[in-house]
Amino acid sequence: MSLSIKQDIRFRVYMAFTGICLFGIAIVIKAAMIQFQEGPKLRALAKEMHTRFDTLKADRGNIYNEDGVLLSSSIPEFEVHIDFSVIDSGLFAKNIDTLAGCVANLFADKSAEIYKEEFVRAYNDGEKYYLLGRKLKYYQHEALRSFPIFNKGKGLGGFISDPKEKREAPYKTLAYRTIGIFRDSNVTGLEATYNDTLTGENGRRIVQKSTGGAWVPIEGSEVDPQNGKDIVTTLDMNIQDVAEHALLSLLQKYECLYGTCIVMEVKTGKIRTLVNLGRQTDGSYFEDFNYAMIPTEPGSTFKLVTLLSLLNDKMINVDDIVDAEGGAIRFGNRTMNDSHLGLHAMPIWKAYAESSNAAMAKLANQHYKDNPSKYIEHLTKLHLDQPTGIDLAGERRTVITKPGMTTWSNTTLPWMATGYGILISPLHTCMLYNAIANDGKMMRPYLVSSIREYGKEVKSFAPHMIEQVGDSNTIAQLRKCTRAVVTEGTGKGIESPYYTMSGKTGTAQVADKGIRYTDGVYQGSFVGYMPAEAPKYTICVVIRTKPHSAAYYGGTIAAPVFRMVADKIFSENMGAWAGPLDSFAKTNNGRLTSSMATARNYRTLLNGIKKPAPTPGDYLNQMMQMSTDSSKKMTILPAKLFRDIMPDLKGMGLKDAVYMLETCGLQVQVMGKGKVQSQSIIPGTRINKGQNVILQLS
User: Fold this and answer.
1) 57-233 homologous superfamily
2) Which of 59, 92, 221, 515 fits a disulfide with 206 by CB distance 3.0 to 4.6 angstroms?
3) Domain limits of the chain?
4) What is the pLDDT of residues 67-124, one digit of tens each?
5) What's the predicted TM-score (pTM) here?
């Protein structure tokens, strides 16, 4: 072999060796770079691919009332999908018939054959996210998880579960706008006001992907969620139910646009009932807006403010005489008219009872014309220029025209004195009359009395007095006026023989949101308190009519709702309000001897007692026989059932109550368990065959 050939071979070997060495050096350098420079970043990336943070969702708190009745709660819902691509063919073929039958029996919406056909098609297409069901209840979800194939889990059985949370109200639409709704895009009512309290705080944990593909929690990484707290509302669902039905019946009868009913506890300001019903396009009614907090021109119920201002300024006494001048008085270029002409000289209390616009406007103009700001100051002191402060989202601003504004004229004051030229909400009106019932103490209205955590009270809300609106003399005179409305004025049609009430009717022409006075839309209202002598509850009813309605006076469309709600309240409290039995009568050989001689007092007595029975649960029907002599003896007699009169069922067992009602031809709906606590039709009311009655048991 020649030298040149050997040199060439040697050169090639050296080059190959050098290349191999350089390649080895490059590998070492790259490995070092990965280890020391890129290593931490790549290790973090690898860890990220095999670990993740899982959110541990906090449970939303519940809403209860003070009786412990659940009003709003969260229940689990599930959306289930199936990944058919991971299911083994042998497992699928062996179990598809059984699976289809199980699903068909669970949902009862399709046959097993149809489900099998759909599952086979999805399996053949390799569907990875086949929708099996939405809004599934917990028992449905658990049943699906136990079915063949699906019981292999997500990795082998393709079972993909997406848990969700649904907010549910056991009373459905009752107090719907007040309790509120909770959705991702919309939160209203108490759900919105107390959202932070109810929501709680989510927790989290780190999970790591195992070799089998399952995500396993890493021990010690979990941060527990802080569940939301419960709130306790002041709402009384029994009164709420009666108020809603009473309001609905009037709205339907006259095809009104909307209505609201508020029941406030006099001494505390607790809101016991808040009903808001608006007419929908199909003619039905629904709690669509919180009408109780929408400012409108109140009309004649505002005359209380005028009298209160005059009395506080010592300008009048309600026994003073005012001349309504026939019910038509001219102010500037306008004439103030009464709804019914012909009233002349009369006491101021009588003018209030008859709701004389002319008289009230005349008094306000006479005493405040030269200094109208003084009148406006009274409105400010009564907090009518501010929100009521109720713990419910959505309260709107009131509107008060003041001297110096471009809208002020020489007719503003007399019209404002009768409830025009000012916008306040029904809740303001209710708060104002409640102050008169509460000896002049104006209370802040509120809906939540406490907050609880795991059943233990962690915060309570006490009654809060806003203002003392007048002295004892002023309040006494105003009570005289409001009582006269019911005994001989515009509200005399709702007087009850069983208890007393006081209040004021209101009727106002409406002009707002595209509605003109000439359109013939009215707002009828009645606000008052009961019992008149020792008030316990204030009730405010406001109804807006359709254009040119046949009925629009407050005494016609709102006062009857007030009476129905007041009857319900009385029926639940008549024993307590009647006073101790010993103050009325004493027992004597099975007879009751009373010193009270009027039939009304006898009815009150017997409505408020139950005779001691030989065995628990025996019920005493309220029947009696009175002697004709002067002894005034009363003997309790066995029951007589009048088929056209609603019996008093309170305290009865369900079996006896249903028997009596069905004997009367009524349709019975039962809520709860135990004995009858309340009934939707007031005892003594005339009933018709086929009428529905709701019994609340406890």
Assistant:
1) Penicillin-binding protein 2a (Domain 2) (3.90.1310.10)
2) 221
3) 3-50, 57-233, 237-576, 577-697
4) 999 999 988 889 999 999 999 999 999 999 999 999 999 999 999 999 999 999 999 9
5) 0.74
